[in-house]
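Kindly review both lines to help learners:
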Amino acid sequence: MRINADFSQRVAVHFDDIPWVQSPAAGVERKMLDRIGEEVARATTIVRFAPGSSFSAHTHDGGEEYLVLDGVFQDETGDFPVGSYVRNPPTSRHAPAAADGAMILVKLHQFDPEDRQTVHVDTTEAQDPHLPLYSDPHEDVCLVNWAPGLEVSFTAEGGAELFVLEGSYQDGDETFGRWDWLRLPPGGQLDAKAGPDGARVWIKSGHLTEMVKN
């Protein structure tokens, strides 16, 4: 399966424009943003867990990175409410569940194979303009709060992904609202203006150069 698999192109996915697709696990649905592979895949996905749903225990050979968008996501290590940012590195293993339901943005098989660092960050209280979440030579991950009307321009030298958590912004003639996703290729340009309520945006950058080389 290949979805938005040309990483040399700008890609925009608006939450309301794509359907939920049932996963192999009962009560678990997905909106696929990009994907290379079948059930074991390099993938960026919004996943919705119905109350009481779960996955059987599994190992993430390529790592798992997620941000909780709604509800409470759970595994053996604890409960992760809205705003939790988690990195489970390659070789990590867990059995995820959501007793009361949850929705997450999750990225699979996108780690440095040698990464063994587990990361848990609660982003809910952060109101600073820029909250670093993770950084290494391979990538940079942060959460930004843009004030209403703020203009933001940058060139994504190593590519970038932007996911709106609250508010909205405009890039050219396109408006990005809550849970909309934009992927810029290496060298892509962002010329954004935050909406009237500002914007809270999760940004991952610097990680797509190898995808274009490949």
Observations:
- The CA atoms of residues 57 and 108 lie 16 Å apart.
- The first helix runs from residue 209 to 213.
- The two ends are 17 Å apart (CA to CA).
- The helical segments are 209-213.
